[in-house]
Amino acid sequence: MKPWLGEEEAAAAAEAVTSGWVAQGPRVRAFEQEFAARVGAVEAVAVSNCTTGLHLALHLLGVGAGDEVVVPSFSFIATANAARYVAATPVFADVDPVTGNLTAETIAAVLTDRTRAVIVVHQAGVPADTRPIYDLLRARGIAVVEDAACAIGSTLYGAPVGSDVDLAVFSFHPRKLVTTGEGGMLVTRHPAWAARARRLREHGMSASAADRHATGSVAPEQYLEPGFNFRMTDVQAAIGRVQLTKLDAMVARRRELAARYREQLAGLPQLQLVADPAWGTTNYQSCWVLLPVDSPVGRDELLARFTEAGVSPRRGIMASHLEPAYADLPAVALPVTERLTADSLVLPLYHQMTEAEQDRVVAVLHAVFGR
């Protein structure tokens, strides 16, 4: 992945610096409003990164000690860590072998009377089929948080991922389409939740520094509850606002490149390339490919072959339940997750990629898997 950054972002960041207002301020608020409009959310709350956004979402729901939070193991470890941050226990569920996402069936298999929330990841930008998941969980009073870290620009049931949801969180890490260096955005349909989230991200402060400055208030602020320091800076927001204007072009180019990968690899039917599910479209944040069970080379050997050819792919999505950080939890059987994480890799894909660069990637795959 290479972020698509240029002179416009540099100028916007410089303007924020020279304005004298570099902490959370008016550009953050403008970015929130523009982001909410882009994804169809009622409210958007900027935070320091997606991980703190997930932490904040579970805190808003009152999840805590003694509660269980169902998460996919097939995800970056931050998803599971968010449950630990609120003293809850993460419970790992398996995923669909095609999309890499939780399903109503895999969630139902691990629910207990202690389940308080489920974090549904739209993995690598592929939207999860959330309607049956919400149907399952609402009847049981279990909350859903959508981890949309990778899914800006993806669609679900004809609308943007993040549209009119209880809680979803996006990432602006440089591996994502829209980047602010670091940063995240929590979106919600509940204005009261958004108002509380804005207080909590700034130490529980009754009125932010930017609001006090804008109104000329000299009244001392109050700290209504213990909060956090989860703020985004105006410099980051300035970059994000420019990036957001490029989103449609980013998605279109990535989908064009992914389609070309599919065309060029059509002669290798044993390779399973990520694709749109029936209920939505992916932004191809990651273009991952699954190797066959009888692959002539293992995933790690294939990565070495790519490196020799001057190409830099990455291993597939991790399995958090296999990491030492979660060795204290009871062992679980997640056969699909373990197959996907062991036998998949992420192909290079970025806005500025040329056909010649893409051909180098394809050539390695044909050399290994071709007849």
For the record, the CATH class of the largest domain is: Alpha Beta
Total number of distinct structural domains: 2
Shape: globular
In which order are the strands of the major sheet placed? 1-9-8-5-4-2-3
Report the portion of residues in β strands: 5-15%
Q: At the fourth CATH level, what is the homologous superfamily of the largest domain? A: Type I PLP-dependent aspartate aminotransferase-like (Major domain)
The helix/strand series, from N terminus to C terminus, equals: HHEHEHEHEHEEEEEHHHHEEEHEHEH
Question: Termini, distance in Å?
Answer: 30 Å
| Main beta-sheet annotation | 7 strands, mixed
CATH topology of the largest domain: Aspartate Aminotransferase, domain 2
Number of strands: 14
Q: Any idea what the CATH architecture of the largest domain is?
A: 3-Layer(aba) Sandwich
Molecular structure report:
The chain folds into 2 domains: 7-247, Aspartate Aminotransferase, domain 2, CATH 3.40.640; 248-369, Aspartate Aminotransferase, domain 1 (Alpha-Beta Complex), CATH 3.90.1150. The protein has helices spanning 7-19, 26-39, 50-60, 78-85, 104-108, 130-138, 191-200, 209-215, 234-245, 247-264, 299-308, 335-343, 355-369; strands spanning 43-47, 68-72, 89-93, 115-121, 143-147, 155-156, 159-160, 168-171, 184-188, 272-273, 280-281, 287-290, 314-315, 344-347. Strands 1-9-8-5-4-2-3 form a 7-stranded mixed β-sheet, with helices on both faces. It is built from 13 helices and 14 strands. The relative contact order is 0.16. It is 38% helix and 15% strand. α6 (130-138) links the parallel β4 (115-121) and β5 (143-147). With 371 residues, the chain is α/β, with parallel strands linked by helices. α1 (7-19) packs antiparallel against α9 and α3 crosses α4 (78-85). Its cofactor is pyridoxal 5'-phosphate. One of its GO terms (biological process) is polysaccharide biosynthetic process.
